[in-house]
Amino acid sequence: MLKKNRKKLMMTLLIALLLVLGACANNNDETQSTNEDSENVEQDLNQENSDTDSNSEEEMEEMDHSHMDMSSSGEVPEGLKVAENPTYPVGSKAIIQDAHMEGMKDAEATIAGAYETTVYTISYTPTTGGERVENHKWVIHEELIDAGDAPLAPGTEVKTDASHMQGMEGAAVEIDSAEETTVYMVDFTTTTGGEEVRNHKWVTEAELSPVE
Question: Is CATH 2.30.30.1210 the right assignment for the domain spanning 81-210?
Answer without folding.
Answer: yes
